[in-house]
């Protein structure tokens, strides 16, 4: 965020969506009409190709702008950051954006692309799994309201991630699979050693030993 650095920023100011970018030779800004506050969710499309930028908010008309000067590349070295932060740290914001604090609210879905001919994708690797998250709220209901954990499992909400915490003996996304004596989740764990393969039996299990090992648990050379 040094003064004069390239940046691209999107935010809310006085009930309007503000989109600004600076390619190094001056800031271009588009400001939407006031948001229709009767809508529960707002849909925003924005982009930039060389000096030209565009912004479309909900049912409003698409607006365009061209950045001043001759520079056409967005040269940034920090990660793409999305969301807000609770503490007041204006030095994290780009100079020239004139935002005073972080986004407050929830974000339902985000899709991005880095080329005009590419498909829009959810950010992260693998797709839809961002590397980290901070202060981005889940919209309206807890995602646990959409998930039914079975067999006594409990839904745990962890930021933008949810999972079922299963009772002993159960596993799987919704605690619907029984834990076999050979599964790593089984307590106590199986005793097959030295790369031996655990094979479940009607009562207990047996170990299939690799070449060079023997014994009940492949423990002997």
Structure report:
The chain has 221 residues and is an all-beta fold. The protein has a domain at 7-137. It contains no helices and twelve strands. It has a three-stranded antiparallel beta sheet with strand order 1-2-3, with no helix packed on it. The mean pLDDT is 84. Keywords: Disulfide bond, EGF-like domain. It comes from Pterocles gutturalis (yellow-throated sandgrouse). Residues 118-137 are annotated as: Disordered. It holds the Pfam family EGF. Residues 140-176, 178-219 form the EGF-like domain.
Write a compact overview of the structure shown:
This protein is mainly beta and 221 residues long. The protein is 0% helix and 26% strand. It has strands at residues 7-13, 16-22, 27-31, 44-49, 52-57, 63-66, 154-158, 161-165, 170-171, 177-178, 197-200, 205-208.
């Amino acid at each position: 965020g040094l003064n004069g650095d390239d940046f691209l920023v999107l935010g809310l100011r006085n009930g309007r969506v503000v989109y600004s970018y600076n390619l190094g030779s001056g800031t271009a800004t588009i400001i939407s009409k006031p948001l229709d506050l009767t809508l529960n969710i707002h849909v925003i499309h924005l982009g930039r190709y060389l000096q030209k930028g565009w912004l479309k908010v909900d049912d409003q008309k698409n607006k365009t702008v061209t950045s001043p000067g001759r520079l056409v590349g967005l040269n940034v070295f920090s990660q793409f950051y999305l969301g807000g932060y609770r503490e007041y740290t204006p030095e994290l914001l780009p100079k020239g954006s004139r935002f005073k604090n972080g986004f407050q609210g929830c974000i339902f879905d985000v899709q991005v692309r880095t080329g005009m001919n590419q498909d829009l994708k959810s950010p992260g690797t693998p797709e839809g799994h961002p590397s980290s998250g901070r202060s981005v709220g889940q919209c309206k209901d807890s995602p646990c309201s959409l998930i039914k954990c079975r067999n006594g499992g409990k839904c745990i909400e962890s930021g933008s991630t949810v999972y079922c915490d299963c009772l002993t003996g159960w596993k799987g996304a919704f605690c619907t699979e029984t834990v076999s004596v050979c599964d790593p989740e089984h307590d106590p764990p199986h005793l097959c050693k030295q790369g031996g393969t655990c094979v479940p039996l009607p009562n207990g299990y047996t170990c299939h030993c690799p070449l060079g090992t023997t014994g009940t648990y492949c423990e002997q050379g």
